[in-house]
Every structure is written in C-alpha cells, then in structure tokens.
Amino acid sequence: MTCPFTARTRLLSEPDAVVTGGPVVRTALPGGPAVWVVTEEALARRVLTDPRFAKDPALAPPEVTDLEPSAAERLSLTTADGPGHARLRRAHAPLLSARALARHAGRARALASALLEGLGSGEVDLTEDFTTRYPLAVVLEVVGAPPGLLDDAVAACRAMWSPDPSVAGAAFGRLQAIGTATVTDGTGDGVAAGLRAALPDLTCAQVGYLVFGLVFAGQLTTDAALGYVVAHALAPGLADRTAGELDALVAGVLRVHPPAPFSLWRFARTVADLDGVPLPAGAPVLVDIRGIDAGPVVGHPLTFGHGPHFCAGAHLARLELRTVLEVLRDRFPDARPAGPVSGLVEVHPGGPVGARLAALPVRLHPAR
C-alpha cells in the first residue's frame, strides 16, 4: 500500500493509502524523518491532552521542515502550549462561539447565493473559484477585514501551492499583511477588534498574525471540505432536508473526508513512553484522525481535534458548510454532480496535510 504521506492522485472509487498497525506506528515522511502515528482512539485522546507532547515547533528535530515559526517567534493558537495557549483560547472562544457567529449567518448565505448565481446555469466546476472564494469571503467578514481585500486573498491562497518557494513565501506574506491590515484598518466590529481588546499587551503585528492564522486555516480546510460535502450532498439531492439533517450530512462526510486527516504536529518534550513504545526527545507525533474516525468512535469524532487544541474555528466551518447546502437546497433544487461521485479525482499534495478534489463539475439549475 502506498505510504499515506506520499503525493498521489486517485479516483474516489479506489482505495487510498492508510496507516496500518498500532496503536502506535513508527513510519517516516518520504525522504524525511521518523514519525510516530497514533492509530487508536483512546490513546489518541490521551496524546491530544498530554503535556508531554507539545505543539511548539522549537522542539522539532531539524529534519522536520515547513513548520510554522516557533511560539517565541510568532505567537499563535497552533504553536502555543500551556498557560500561554489557554490565554489565547479564552480570547478567541467567545468571538468564535456558535452564538457569536449566528449574526454572520445571513451574510454567509448572501455570499454563497451571489457566488453560486454568478457562475451561471449549466455545468460549472465549483473548485475553479467557488470553494476558494466563498470561505475566504466569509472569514474576512467575520474577522472584520477592510473592504476590497478578497481578490488579493484569493490570489494569495492559490499562490501558496506554487512549487516555487519564493512565490509561495510571498503569498504567505500577503496573507499576513491582510491580517495586520485587518487589525489596523478593519471594520472594528469583527474578531480582530475583539482580540485586540482582549489581548491589549500584544502588538498590532502579533494580533495580525493571530488573524492571519484564522484566515489561512479557515480557508485551507473549508476549501477542501466543501468539495466532498457538496458532492456527497448533491448526489442524492437535497430536497426537503431539514437543518438537522444537513448538519448530520456535513458531520458524516467530514468523518470520511476530514480536511485534516492527521492532527497538527506534536513533539515529545523529553524521552517518553507511549503505550510501551519508546520515543526519543523531539519525536514527531501525529494522530491518524481519518483512520480513527473511520471506525466506531466513542464520544465526538476527532474531525476537529480534541482537548485544549480543539479547532477554534469549528463552529465557523460548520456554519459555512451547512449554509452552502441550504442555498443549494433552496435556490438550486435540481443541482446534481455532472457525473458519479465515485469518478471524482482526489489530489493529495503529500505530507500530513489533507487532500482535495481536483474538480467538482456540477449542473446548476436555479429555481424558477
């Protein structure tokens, strides 16, 4: 079986690479360092709450590359640990709660409607523009970005996948600049303003990096998830689906096609024993979210993680995905995939990041 960290392309009807064995599997990135993957649910939940395994890239062995800056260099939700992380979570949580985000539901619906209607009728490829532009449009409004930045953000997100490191690096810089601009010149009533008020000791640049993290992660994951959710929802059709049924559909698809099939990196602070498996200091540890969620799960699925680093944007992602399905149900009741879902092509860029559909051709027919 192909290594799950190898770049690959497959039809959805074909079996994908999986991690076999466990509960802890020692494997490696292609041409890279050893990696320990947790494949058993109870152990995964322990690891995701175990302070022996930290998020800070400063602990990573030098062979692990393409990481965020360390928490000391760039404070962020995804790299901070302990009390520092808890403080950031307390600042973010009320701003990204389901209750706080409810005020954005109408605007998210309007954005989804306008973007889908702008594609015209007939056969369209939703991955060509919609799945990138829609989540960016929503998250920029939620954080309170100044008007007029959407096209630049879309271009930056596309450029991040360039094989040219200088192009990709410049794209990250552009998104970071958008984060800072949101703090200094934003609307004043979004998440950026809330973070500025809750974290008054941080500089505009530091809060801007927190905003960048929300924009980057919110686009990257929702972009990928949209393709799978829409494809699986439209195949049988959405007529008469209730809000609860749409939520269940989203959750079910995300269990099979999580936008992050593995947890974000964790590193052993010291020499550690993990269920009888010895790990050296700095050992990179991942949780096999997709593999675990594919089986019977006790408690909530691991799609959005578990423990202190549970995804801060989980409510926003669910809102965006459900809203698109509601718009398709109400305004495009006859929309269907242009071919069988099993014939769609999935592209995996390699490493522990998630895959996405290469294309999602859909026949759109607005309601008369």
Short description:
GO terms for molecular function: heme binding; iron ion binding; monooxygenase activity; oxidoreductase activity, acting on paired donors, with incorporation or reduction of molecular oxygen. The mean pLDDT is 94.
Broad CATH class: Mainly Alpha
Straight-line distance between termini: 49 Å
CATH homologous superfamily placement: Cytochrome P450
Number of strands: 13
> How many domains make up the coordinates?
1
Number of helices: 12
In round numbers, the mean pLDDT is 94
* CATH topological fold name: Cytochrome p450
| Spatial ordering of strands, largest sheet | 2-3-9-6-4
Protein name: Cytochrome P450
InterPro entries: Cyt_P450, Cyt_P450_B, Cyt_P450_CS, Cyt_P450_sf
GO molecular function: heme binding; iron ion binding; monooxygenase activity; oxidoreductase activity, acting on paired donors, with incorporation or reduction of molecular oxygen
Family: Belongs to the cytochrome P450 family.
